[in-house]
Amino acid sequence: MSETTVAVDTAPGAITTALLEGMAAATRRGSERYRRLGAADIRFGLRVDAASGTPEAAYVMTFADFECEGVQEVTPATLDDASRCDCYVAAGRDAWESLIAHIVEKGRADAAHTLNTLVLADEDFHLGGATQLGVDAFYRLNATLQAFVEECAGTAEGINEQSKGEA
Predict the structure, then answer these.
(1) How confident is the model at residue 98 (pLDDT cuts 50, 70, 90)?
(2) Which domains can be identified in the chain, with CATH numbers?
(3) Which of 48, 69, 107, 143 has the fewest Cβ atoms surrounding its Cβ within 10 A?
């Protein structure tokens, strides 16, 4: 079945398929880090919302064992389908770009910028899922999901440098 997608611009810090695929590749290169965290079998989603709160884009990353096996851009409704996504984090485009910029600048998230802290505050970042077991998976596998998000530090810089060279 074909997915309908909405394009998100490629501003520095924007979540794109290319950024997420680069982060997934980093999990394979850094497999020892993920082995220490333990096996993770989860379909984890990210949703990017417009300033109005309307979903603009959504992605599902499939984790198996010690790596992210794949990234798929999906319709936002897919994130509420328990057969396709266990849990997801939704935030506005500006919030995602701010988080990525922080991680790129610092090399990793500080305590105020972890996914766990951000979704517990439930202000700009919101945790969702079709089932309670799916939402629970976010908390059980949080260290792996946080490590994945922190992969943007090297990946986003590489994509931004490549974009500058193409301009």
Answers:
(1) very high
(2) 17-156 (3.30.1050.10)
(3) 107
Q: How many residues does the chain have?
A: 167
Helix, strand counts (H, E) of the chain: 7, 5
User: Rounded to two decimals, what is the model's pTM?
Assistant: 0.86
Sorted by sequence, the CB contacts under 8 Å of residue 115 that are 6+ apart come out as 89, 109, 125, 138, 142, 145, 146, 149
114 or 155, higher pLDDT? 114
User: Which residues are bridge partners to 91 per DSSP?
Assistant: 48, 125
Interior CA angle at 141 toward 135 and 142, to 5°? 85
* Distance separating alpha carbons of residues 82 and 79, to the nearest angstrom: 8
Listed in sequence order, the residues at least 6 apart from 99 whose beta carbon sits closer than 8 Å to its beta carbon are 91, 109, 113, 118, 149
Reported as a single tens digit per residue, the pLDDT across 117-155 is: 999 999 999 999 999 999 999 999 999 999 999 999 888
Mean pLDDT of 39-44: 97
Strand order in the sheet with 42-49: 67-74, 55-64, 42-49, 87-92, 125-128
Residue in this structure with the two tokens 């202000």, named with its chain if needed: 123
Asked if 57 and 6 count as a contact pair (C-beta separation under 8 A), the reply is: yes
- Report the 10 Å Cβ neighbour count for 36: 10
